[in-house]
Design brief:
CATH architecture: Alpha-Beta Barrel
Shape: globular
Number of helices: 12
Largest sheet: 8 strands, parallel, barrel
CATH topology: TIM Barrel
Number of strands: 8
CATH superfamily: Aldolase class I
Radius of gyration: 18 Å
Length: 296
């Protein structure tokens, strides 16, 4: 089931004005993705996974599974304590989560062998498909290109690599190290470039606010229909990162009426998002909707 979904949305975790989880809005967010036919990633960095308690993360997994969505659910396994990560993997397996996203441990900055051993120590504990995640801007270290290559050869549940370094050259290095291993774009502004280089799918922040539009853009790229791509795509999605993510996309979702509040949790604060960026996001939303409508 998981391999049938080229687009995964790294969904936000909606909160009320007191920074408590808003499950009503979370259901709305998840149902929007279901309607669009996108896989959902809960508890990623866009979902403020590291800002949540262990109990809150368990509640979110249980709630998402209770909705019986017809699209698969991937859970982010983030952090730096091995035993805690294994424990949460076991919990996700008990809840029958469809896939897991594994990332290099933050702060420690392991080398090549440390990275491989970290992922191996997690993947050996589960049969669930595992996507690994290269995001040096958050983890503090670049993934070595040989790591996904070795994991692809050693584990039948290796699902692919989400590449979010923002570097075309690094993407090429991963592709060349393991030409047959699936690669997913992890940067909304590089979908076309990464697909042209062999990406089979995308894990997106933008599809929170633009689920059908992002899916259409990705499919056009995968079908090599460059002439139909939205020409202002990069400018629009870049606005989602004008302040620490997911602050901008939450503000847009709140404006659209899809969530009840644009609240984020410390260390994020709404004040880091400028009024100018909010206004630009509303205009980007108008443009993207008009483009999508013109194709129907």
């Amino acid at each position: 089931m998981t391999t049938d979904f080229p687009l995964w949305t790294a969904v936000v975790t909606p909160m009320n004005d007191y920074a408590e989880i808003d499950f009503e809005s979370l259901e709305s967010v998840l149902k929007e993705q279901e309607v669009a036919g996108n896989g959902v990633l809960i508890l990623g960095s866009t979902g403020e996974g590291l800002n949540l308690t262990s109990e809150e993360k368990r509640e979110i997994v249980k709630f998402a599974k209770s909705l019986d969505l017809v699209v698969p659910i991937m859970a982010g396994i983030g952090g730096f304590n091995l035993e805690a990560q294994i424990e949460f993997i076991k919990f996700c397996d008990d809840q029958k989560v469809d896939a897991l996203l594994l990332v290099n441990p933050i702060y420690a900055k392991p080398g090549k062998e440390g990275q491989y051993t970290w992922f191996k120590s997690l993947m050996v504990e589960t049969d669930t498909p595992c996507m690994i995640y290269n995001v040096p801007s958050r983890a503090g270290v670049k993934m070595h290109p040989e790591v996904p290559s070795r994991l692809f050869n050693d584990f039948g549940n290796y699902m692919g690599l989400k590449e979010a370094s923002g570097s075309i050259e690094e993407f090429k290095a991963f592709r060349d190290a393991a030409p047959d291993a699936p690669l997913y774009c992890g940067d909304d502004n590089l979908i076309k470039e990464f697909v042209d280089l062999g990406a089979v799918g995308h894990v997106s922040v933008a599809s929170n606010a633009w689920p059908s539009q992002t899916k259409k853009y990705l499919n056009l790229a995968l079908e090599n229909k460059s002439e139909e791509l939205f020409e202002d795509w990069v400018a629009c999605v870049d606005l989602l990162f004008d302040a620490p993510s997911p602050t901008p996309v939450k503000a847009l979702l709140f404006h659209k009426g899809w969530i009840n509040s644009d609240q984020v949790r410390l260390p994020l604060v709404k004040q880091d998002l400028s009024t100018e960026t909010e206004e630009a996001l509303i205009e980007a939303d108008r443009k993207l909707n008009a483009w999508f409508k013109s194709l129907s």
